[in-house]
Task: structure prediction
Amino acid sequence: MKEPKPLGKRTLARMVACGVLYEMDITGDGAEAAMESVSRMLREGVSEEPTAPSEITEVAREQVRFSLGGEACVEELTSFGGESFSYPGEIPDFARELVFLYLGNKDAIDSLIGKYADRWSLERMPAIDRNLLRLGIAELIYRPDIPPNVTINEYLELAKSFSTEDSGKFVNGVLGSVARDHAVQGQGEP
Result:
């Protein structure tokens, strides 16, 4: 059997950024607190014993493993980029950049999701889909150095991996429409 191809650094950073937005959604914490929480979960998710047992239970550790695609993916994330996740476990720069690109342009990005997500409000949308769209649109619009087809494919694959096949189609459709209209308008802002 063929061994799975290791994930690229940016793919892993996109996964981490989505985890940060998800953490912000469920806890109401700000970006820095959510990043620290995700870093802590990643560190503790691969250790034999959590460093702070009162803060993370076995169930939470299993959820981290599941949401990140299993133990192998957690291992890959924690060794990501050599020193990127060395103790004390820092969020990769690209993940941090994506989170702050979204937060700095939240209203415009959420408005675009509302415009293109046919019959889906942000509140009704599964959190993973909502956050993948937020990050994907931020990347499409504010990172013109990354080809749109690369961005769309990355988020499509993440949606299929962490949500459903239908979510992959949904994310692909919304991001494709945003990219198409954005290219026609030819502007750097939504």
